[in-house]
Task: structure prediction
Amino acid sequence: MQLLVLVATLLVLTIIGFYLGRSRAVSSVGGKERSLHSLPSYHGFYVAIWCAVPALLVFVAWLALEPQILRAMLVDSLPPEAQSLPPERLGLLLNDIRNLASGNILSRAADPEMQQAAERYSRMLQISRMALLVLVLALAIAGLLFARSRIAPRFRARNTVETVIMFFLIASSVVAILTTVGIVLSLIFEASRFFLRVSPVEFLFGLEWSPQMAMRADQVGAAGSFGAVPLFVGTLLIAFIAMCVAMPVGLMAAIYMAEYAHSRLRAVVKPVLEILAGIPTVVYGFFAALTVAPFFRSVGSDAGLDISSESALAAGVVMGIMIIPFVSSLSDDVITAVPQSMREGSYGLGATQAETIRRVIIPAALPGIIGGFLLATSRAIGETMIVVMAAGLAANLTANPFQAVTTVTVQIATLLVGDQEFDSPKTLAAFALGLVLFCVTLTLNIIALRIVTKYREQYD
Result:
């Protein structure tokens, strides 16, 4: 609660600083705003930045360092026999002390020494939070007064504010880049540990996937099989079925909305179609498992076909329905971007509307449409919940859409479910699969961007 009050107080001070800075700028020129180098709002933002940014930086740094410092001080206050405990037992003891200080349930009964340690920890935490409160408010007020004192008619507040905004934009970009680099490096590092135990050739070209590792060497299946080809085939099969559903339906819907539908009908149809994109994937999974899969099974039995209750067909069809808004929205944007002059020129040469769409609009928009198809394929390859609920977990090497299959993403989720040790090939296999999936989707995205940029034509 103290931290919430502190953040609210800092927000109020920032707002006050903005209005004080703006009013100070206006009063410094006697109300003649044209005499200012920058608009009054820039002076207000200048004061607000000086009020908020230094205080927030100290606030974040304090909260980041506080746990380590309090832990070290708490360990120093413990008896020597407690300080000499193994790291895992010492961590459990400190966790019990923190739970006792916060009033939570302990993992064991509290003794007088633990009670005293909890009281010391509570006092240290209270002192730390009070010091944080005083320091942050003092910095905010000092920054407000300093920035307000610098306001003058010729002060370049706009330049300073835009420099700060530019810095934050660059910092945000760097954070995004570093996050991506961190994800890639973590995948590569963990996958390399897996490939030290399992041959990459076996993983990429093996035909049997059974990652279950026995706890003892004398158990059945002590050595798992890590051939990922069944997973790759299942992923491509379901993605192919999904795109066979999504591509024609999404493209036809986009053509209708862009070329045939009245503006009032388009204003209704387009949002309704895009509602499908907002439905959680687990709902699609329930729909596939409870409605679509039984329907296909009953139809198959009437036709003499053996369709499994969990099949690639059910998962692929429902996944295609889920991707339809993605395909239609991208295709609609590309088609509507084709210049109207091309349509009018085609009509002027005597072409019908259907001929204009088929021979002029679609060829002009084809690079963007293909790029949208590839992006939608990446979306289909990365889907998990629908496959878990409708296609099952069996790693079958088959191209029969009526049989149960599984995908790379499903196996990643399965391997990392529950308490796992990241030292066994079973768990590390998830990172190897993730690296392969990352490379595949990255390749598809690069191809899509290359197609769009290479074959895009500029029209006057």
Notes: Residues 2-155 form one domain. The CA atoms of residues 174 and 398 lie 44 Å apart.
